[in-house]
Amino acid sequence: MKRTAAFFVILSVSACGKPSEPSLPEPPELPPLPELSLPAAASDDYVALPAGEAFEPAWNLGRGTRHVYEGRQTARARIEMTAGGTSGTGTTDVRSQGLVEFIGGGEGRGRARCAWTPKEIVVNDEAKNPNDEQPRRFECLLREDGVFTSSKKMSGSADVHYLDVLFALPPMPLKPDEAAERELHFGAGTADYAHHGRMRLRHAGRRKVGRHECVKLVSEVDLSLTPPPPAHGIGRMIGRVISYFDPEERRFVQVDADFSMVARHRALVQPREEGQGEPHWSLGTLRSDTAFRIRLREE
């Protein structure tokens, strides 16, 4: 999910400039996407509470309210490339610490700020200095129903923040065992993937989490992915989000999420100058697995 910008640079290198005279080769077929799977969900050791009635899915965004979360993110990506008769692979492992803050503005609206700071980076089994990479910072506007209406990247390489998936609320009140779906569309027009698909959120009962009496939400994510131009390709991401929402305080207490994605791409590589070879296609496969663990900071 992260650190894909270099992949697209590799795919599109030499794709601009002066075209070669020979006719262009036919584009190769992209192999089907492999099946995806997620790690087993962690056991739920919280005390079960009476099921109760339907809960109202809405944030407390009263003017001046603040909800602060601390988080961990681990991400592993593997890239396989073939171009001009040569091939290669690369891996990247990143561990980041995050801080997410929701600030109420009143009248059912508020802001969200997030910053994910790399703490460990390993590229092809070689440790890199995490201070060489900027934190990924975003500022967003949202409504009390959990819909993010706008977002702005402040720094970092990633163009997608995923807050609207991690902190998703169902679009309607749910009773225990009821489920509802939300459409997801984000990332289009950026240097990252365009994501399109659905998220199914299910009321999985109530749990005592610390001092909080929470609704447990178990959500399944299934998205199709398309790369930014000039690459062409297919991709898919699946995910599971297990979150605990306190309907009395109208905020999340805990979020655990796992995502797995795969994408295949092709891009036409054309020599910039005469004598540098014939036009050819570059093929790539990107696989990544990402996990988030986010907790409310009690103040």
Concise summary:
The protein is mainly β and 299 residues long. It is built from two helices and 13 strands; from the N terminus they run αβββββββαββββββ. A hairpin with a 2-residue loop joins strand 4 (109-123) and strand 5 (126-128).
Structural class category:
mainly beta
Discrete helix count:
2
Distance between the termini: 32 Å
- CATH fold title: Lipovitellin-phosvitin complex, beta-sheet shell regions
Care to describe what's here?
Strand 2 and strand 3 (86-106) form a beta hairpin. With 299 residues, this protein is mainly beta. Helices cover 4% and strands 56% of the residues. The protein has one domain (5-10, 49-296): Lipovitellin-phosvitin complex, beta-sheet shell regions, CATH 2.30.230. The model is unreliable at 8-20 (pLDDT under 50). The protein starts with a helix and ends with a strand.
